[in-house]
């Protein structure tokens, strides 16, 4: 019994179909619970009620990065072991990652307006997320542009690899660039240690919720891709016959 | 390999090869900016390094799709793929040819356009240096993007979308060199970073580009 | 209804935008999946 057995589309469909309902319930409970709990937390003495945005902003930002890492791993598995499910999972994850990046950017801008007095600041973190969004868009665009499914999987896989290196490189370049512009203007809000427990537990729940939500979406979208692939294969077979 | 390089250079400089178009585009871009931001030296001088670099970047983009497109259409790319030279070498050579026909003219023209944008005199040397170090990476990354999109009917726009984000680190360090040079600061750090990026790109990206080409030739 | 103070608009806008985007991606995933399943079933039934 190895994990590679799930690379078989039929087996994947069966197992994911059985797991999905439970996962949906868990994701719904955790996401809605986390966000609602976060919404009901007391105000911060400094940031007022805007502190409630953290329960959307931080989980979305966390998932934006983690989804790209997951896509990188899935692409590597496809390129090395050529499991179709893996390539389709990477394809399925990209739009979810792009939406997470958008949420992180949008909530950040809305939050930044009253706190920093500006919607947008070319702060290293913000800039890096904008670049990440560009990479997501390019990746999705490449998937939709290529007709042959296996070529598309290969090319997007290579792009994901190169893109990962450059996304990381851009992260450090941006850090360097911004320090060159205005010294020591650190606007980033570091969560974790300084947070009191009132905020920490709903945040954890919200993070778990976003993670489960991503799993649900990726499974559903991968199932969609497998079905589409099967339909295309059936139609192609009939055309030949 | 020398033969291949010579052939590519001849093709590019021949009539209809698009040689010189990039420089013309660069000139137009640099001429448009003052119309947009106003002719005052105080407005142009601080943005000159950025405009010159962004201009070089965009001019470079223009001719990228030609790197493989023609050879792909007439089938000579298939021949090259079965030739004794590894495909990695072919992509690197193609990028080199692109750099010679596009990058070098841009570098030669950049100081002149720098005058148009009131770039301070002492920064001109840094401008040439930063472009010399940075543009080979642009050509190589462009070859990678061209290799990915070569089979697509409308790959041009997609090519820009894929390649431009990859240019960000080069752009950042390139302009930083000029900015520090213009202010009389020490540009050693960005130079080292930029050279590091270019060296890394030259060493590794040919493999990715060749892999993409093999997929497209399948 | 809880009191959001002077930042009510900010907080509600952030929650609104995020929920809209989340619901959007969930709905899109679900609809695409349902359509793919319908089409596949129809095709397999008709042979």
UniProtKB/TrEMBL annotation, chain A:
<keyword id="KW-0201">Cytochrome c-type biogenesis</keyword>
<feature type="transmembrane region" description="Helical">
    <location>
        <begin position="126"/>
        <end position="146"/>
    </location>
</feature>
<dbReference type="GO" id="GO:0005886">
    <property type="term" value="C:plasma membrane"/>
</dbReference>
<dbReference type="GO" id="GO:0020037">
    <property type="term" value="F:heme binding"/>
</dbReference>
<keyword id="KW-0812">Transmembrane</keyword>
<dbReference type="InterPro" id="IPR045062">
    <property type="entry name" value="Cyt_c_biogenesis_CcsA/CcmC"/>
</dbReference>
<feature type="transmembrane region" description="Helical">
    <location>
        <begin position="20"/>
        <end position="40"/>
    </location>
</feature>
<feature type="transmembrane region" description="Helical">
    <location>
        <begin position="198"/>
        <end position="220"/>
    </location>
</feature>
<keyword id="KW-0813">Transport</keyword>
<protein>
    <recommendedName>
        <fullName>Heme exporter protein C</fullName>
    </recommendedName>
</protein>
<comment type="similarity">
    <text>Belongs to the CcmC/CycZ/HelC family.</text>
</comment>
<keyword id="KW-1133">Transmembrane helix</keyword>
<feature type="domain" description="Cytochrome c assembly protein">
    <location>
        <begin position="4"/>
        <end position="182"/>
    </location>
</feature>
<feature type="transmembrane region" description="Helical">
    <location>
        <begin position="158"/>
        <end position="178"/>
    </location>
</feature>
<dbReference type="GO" id="GO:0015232">
    <property type="term" value="F:heme transmembrane transporter activity"/>
</dbReference>
UniProtKB/TrEMBL annotation, chain B:
<dbReference type="GO" id="GO:1903607">
    <property type="term" value="P:cytochrome c biosynthetic process"/>
</dbReference>
<feature type="transmembrane region" description="Helical">
    <location>
        <begin position="125"/>
        <end position="150"/>
    </location>
</feature>
<dbReference type="GO" id="GO:0015232">
    <property type="term" value="F:heme transmembrane transporter activity"/>
</dbReference>
<dbReference type="InterPro" id="IPR003544">
    <property type="entry name" value="Cyt_c_biogenesis_CcmB"/>
</dbReference>
<keyword id="KW-0201">Cytochrome c-type biogenesis</keyword>
<keyword id="KW-0812">Transmembrane</keyword>
<feature type="transmembrane region" description="Helical">
    <location>
        <begin position="190"/>
        <end position="213"/>
    </location>
</feature>
<dbReference type="GO" id="GO:0005886">
    <property type="term" value="C:plasma membrane"/>
</dbReference>
<comment type="function">
    <text>Required for the export of heme to the periplasm for the biogenesis of c-type cytochromes.</text>
</comment>
<dbReference type="Pfam" id="PF03379">
    <property type="entry name" value="CcmB"/>
</dbReference>
<keyword id="KW-1003">Cell membrane</keyword>
<protein>
    <recommendedName>
        <fullName>Heme exporter protein B</fullName>
    </recommendedName>
</protein>
<feature type="transmembrane region" description="Helical">
    <location>
        <begin position="157"/>
        <end position="178"/>
    </location>
</feature>
<feature type="transmembrane region" description="Helical">
    <location>
        <begin position="12"/>
        <end position="35"/>
    </location>
</feature>
<keyword id="KW-0472">Membrane</keyword>
TrEMBL record, chain C:
<protein>
    <recommendedName>
        <fullName>Heme exporter protein D</fullName>
    </recommendedName>
</protein>
<dbReference type="GO" id="GO:0005886">
    <property type="term" value="C:plasma membrane"/>
</dbReference>
<comment type="similarity">
    <text>Belongs to the CcmD/CycX/HelD family.</text>
</comment>
<keyword id="KW-1133">Transmembrane helix</keyword>
<dbReference type="Pfam" id="PF04995">
    <property type="entry name" value="CcmD"/>
</dbReference>
<dbReference type="GO" id="GO:0017004">
    <property type="term" value="P:cytochrome complex assembly"/>
</dbReference>
<keyword id="KW-0812">Transmembrane</keyword>
<dbReference type="InterPro" id="IPR007078">
    <property type="entry name" value="Haem_export_protD_CcmD"/>
</dbReference>
<keyword id="KW-0472">Membrane</keyword>
<feature type="transmembrane region" description="Helical">
    <location>
        <begin position="12"/>
        <end position="32"/>
    </location>
</feature>
<keyword id="KW-0813">Transport</keyword>
<keyword id="KW-0201">Cytochrome c-type biogenesis</keyword>
<dbReference type="GO" id="GO:0015886">
    <property type="term" value="P:heme transport"/>
</dbReference>
<keyword id="KW-0997">Cell inner membrane</keyword>
<keyword id="KW-1003">Cell membrane</keyword>
């Amino acid at each position: 019994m190895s994990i590679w057995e799930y690379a078989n589309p039929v087996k994947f469909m069966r197992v994911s179909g059985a797991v999905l309902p439970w996962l949906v319930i868990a994701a719904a409970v955790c996401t809605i619970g986390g966000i609602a709990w976060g919404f009901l937390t007391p105000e911060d003495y400094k940031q007022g009620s805007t502190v409630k945005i953290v329960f959307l902003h931080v989980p979305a930002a966390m998932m934006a990065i983690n989804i790209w890492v997951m896509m990188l791993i899935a692409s590597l598995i496809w390129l090395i072991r050529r499991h179709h499910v893996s390539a389709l999972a990477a394809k399925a994850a990209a739009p979810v990652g792009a939406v997470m990046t958008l949420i992180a950017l949008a909530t950040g801008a809305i939050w930044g307006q009253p706190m920093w007095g500006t919607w947008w600041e070319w702060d290293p973190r913000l800039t890096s997320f904008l670049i990440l969004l560009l990479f997501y868009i390019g990746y999705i665009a490449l998937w939709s542009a290529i007709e042959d499914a296996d070529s598309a999987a290969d090319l997007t896989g290579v792009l994901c690899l190169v893109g990962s290196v450059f996304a990381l490189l851009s992260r450090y370049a941006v850090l360097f660039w911004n320090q060159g512009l205005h010294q020591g203007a650190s606007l980033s809000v570091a969560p974790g240690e300084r947070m009191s427990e009132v905020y920490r537990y709903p945040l954890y729940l919200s993070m778990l919720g976003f993670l489960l939500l991503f799993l649900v979406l990726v499974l559903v979208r991968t199932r969609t891709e497998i079905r589409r692939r099967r339909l295309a294969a059936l139609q192609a077979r009939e055309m030949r016959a | 390999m020398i033969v291949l390089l010579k052939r590519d250079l001849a093709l590019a400089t021949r009539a209809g090869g698009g040689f010189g178009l990039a420089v013309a585009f660069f000139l137009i871009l640099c001429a448009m900016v003052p119309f947009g931001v106003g002719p005052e030296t105080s407005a142009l001088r601080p943005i000159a390094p950025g405009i010159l670099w962004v201009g070089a970047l965009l001019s470079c983009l223009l001719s990228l799709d030609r790197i493989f497109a023609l050879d792909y259409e007439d089938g000579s790319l298939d021949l090259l793929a079965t030739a004794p030279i590894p495909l990695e070498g072919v992509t690197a050579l193609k990028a080199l040819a692109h750099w010679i026909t596009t990058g070098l003219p841009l570098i030669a023209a950049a100081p002149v356009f720098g005058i148009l944008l009131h770039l301070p005199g002492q920064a001109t040397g840094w401008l040439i240096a930063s472009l010399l170090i940075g543009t080979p990476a642009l050509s190589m990354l462009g070859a990678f993007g061209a290799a990915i999109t070569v089979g697509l009917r409308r790959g041009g726009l997609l090519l820009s979308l894929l390649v431009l984000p990859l240019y960000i680190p080069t752009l950042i360090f390139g302009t930083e060199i000029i900015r520090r040079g213009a202010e009389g600061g020490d540009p050693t750090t960005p130079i080292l970073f930029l050279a590091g990026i270019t060296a890394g790109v030259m060493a590794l990206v040919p493999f990715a580009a060749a892999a993409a080409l093999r997929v497209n030739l399948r | 209804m809880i009191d959001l103070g002077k930042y009510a608009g900010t907080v509600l806008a952030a929650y609104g935008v995020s929920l809209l985007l989340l619901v959007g991606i969930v709905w899109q995933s679900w609809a695409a999946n349902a359509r793919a399943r319908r089409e596949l079933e129809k095709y397999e039934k008709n042979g």
